[in-house]
Each structure stands twice: as C-alpha cells, then as structure tokens.
Design goal:
8-stranded mixed β-sheet
C-alpha cells in the first residue's frame, strides 16, 4: 500500500509507446503521463468503445493528438499476430512496450489456454517476441511488464502446463487466484530470461509490482466477491495514478540499463524469492511458451 513517485525525466518527444490495456486503470494513467511528455501513445486494447473513449479523454486532458487505439485481444494469438503485422507495416519506431493488461478470472482463451496464463503471460510473450526487432531498431528501447507481489505465491508445474495448457483451474476463488499468482510469477521469469536474450543489444526490460491498486482487474469475479473486494479497495487500495508510478519509473528513469531483468516496486529495485530468479525455470518457461505459440 506504500506510495512512491516517479522522478524519471527521459525525453519522450518523437518516441512511440505501446501500452496493452491502456484504456483503464494503471494502463490509462501510464498513457496519460507519456502523452503529456510528448510521446506517441498507442492503446492496445480489446474493447473498442472503451479504448476510443480513453483516447478522447487523454487527448482532451493533454492536448496531444498523438494518442491512438489499435485493436488487440491477448486471448487470441491470431489477433496478436494481426496487431503486430499492422504495426510493423506502418514503419513506426517503437521505444516502449508496456505489457500492462491482466485479469483475474477462470476459463479458457480462444486458443484453449487457461485465460490467466494466456492473457497475463503467453499473449504478452508473443507480442514482445514479434516486436523485439522494431524495439532494437529504435535504440535504447524498453519492455516493462506489470507483474505483482502475488508472484511470491506462484508455482509452475511445467508437465501439467504442457499437457493441460493452464497454470491451474477450478471454480473456487482460491483456485483461480492461485493461477493468477502463477501467471505473475511467469511475468517475472519472462523478464529474467528476456534480459539474458537481449544482451548485446541496447534494449532493456523490467518487471513491476505496481502496489495494491483499485483497477478493473477483478471485473470477471463473482458478484459476492465484488461485494467484498470493492468496499475494501475503495478505502485501502492505491488509485491508478499512484499505481502507475513504478511503471513510469521503469519507462522514464535514466541509468536503469544495468538493472535490466530486475523487479521493481515503489520506484526501486527489489529482491525476489529464489523461485522467481530460477534461471533454469525461466529458460524452460521461454521454451514452453515458444512451443505453445507455434502449435496454436
């Protein structure tokens, strides 16, 4: 619940940022700040009407005309390929990729993956992989992936993941919350391995715990769960503006390059548990993710 403030001041005029889930919550707050700093901002979202409303609001509040929407459904690998093909055809530079979108829910994606694994990790894995070369072309690009403190309670059973294509399933709240935690562990391990694969380039990457934030993350949970969560959130949780600060820190702070692959909270680098820095597990997750994307 601690607050922090981004002090980073990297110039953003002429630079381009893609933000998944940029139509609401932390993503929208991040988009607003980057637009204020002169960046061209692309909201990569599934819901067209919400995204267009967010674009109009950000443009009105910042005076920037360089804010736009491109459709992206992270629960559909074909949609991710289509998004990347369209973006790459435009010839636009890419300086920041903010893997922000996430959800807590049960069910399956269009490709048959557990929805939390598919959206929170695998969709972002594929999106990042397809856009890496464009990030390298711009020089000094960054990938910021929003994880969570919940990664500490995650667990990845690779044999079950390959066989069942999910990190856990079940109708009880604790079952899909456990899968959520595991998807957030995937985010940290993905960033760990991505940093290794980016060595020799000037692209860097970071994972982020934004704090305990009031967002639409739990919009798919049941009514009785919302009745419990929302009053608590209203009085105790951070607002999206405060929740965006560590993401913005990793986007805008100068001198972070030696910390590529690390995990940040409260605008500072933090240590993670042994399982979140397990190099063998990070490599295995990358290999399994590649295979699953190729097969689908």
């Amino acid at each position: 619940f601690k607050t922090s403030r981004c002090r980073g001041n990297i110039p953003m005029a002429g630079k381009t940022a893609i933000i998944t889930g940029g139509n609401t919550g932390i993503g929208k707050a991040t988009a607003l700040h980057l637009a204020k700093r002169g960046a061209r901002v692309i909201l990569a979202c599934r819901n067209r009407s919400k995204a267009q409303a967010a674009v109009a609001d950000i443009q009105q509040r910042t005076g920037s005309s360089e804010v736009s929407f491109m459709p992206l459904d992270l629960a559909n690998l074909e949609s991710i390929h289509g998004f990347c093909q369209h973006f790459l055809r435009t010839g636009s530079r890419l300086d920041l990729l903010v893997n922000n979108a996430g959800l807590v829910a049960d069910g399956r994606t269009d490709d048959g993956f557990g929805v939390q694994f598919g959206v929170n990790h695998l969709g972002h894995f594929l999106l990042t992989s397809l856009l890496l070369e464009r990030l390298k072309e711009a020089g000094g690009g960054r990938v910021v992936t929003v994880s969570s403190l919940a990664h500490r309670w995650g667990h990845i059973d690779f044999e079950a993941l390959v066989e069942n294509r999910h990190l856990g399933s079940g109708s009880f709240s604790w079952q899909f919350f456990q899968a959520y935690c595991s998807s957030k562990l995937c985010n940290v391990l993905f960033t760990h391995e991505l940093a290794k694969r980016l060595r020799g380039s000037d692209v860097t990457c970071y994972s982020v715990h934004p704090g305990i934030v009031r967002t639409e993350l739990s919009r798919h949970v049941s009514l009785w769960q919302k009745l419990f969560i929302e009053p608590v959130a209203r009085f105790l949780f951070l607002d999206p503006e405060a929740g965006a600060q560590t993401t913005l820190h990793c986007c805008l702070q100068e001198g972070l390059e030696p910390l590529s692959g690390r995990y940040f909270s409260c605008c500072s680098v933090q240590e993670v548990s042994a399982k979140a820095r397990d190099a063998a597990a990070a490599r295995k997750l990358w290999e399994v993710s590649e295979a699953l994307c190729a097969r689908s």
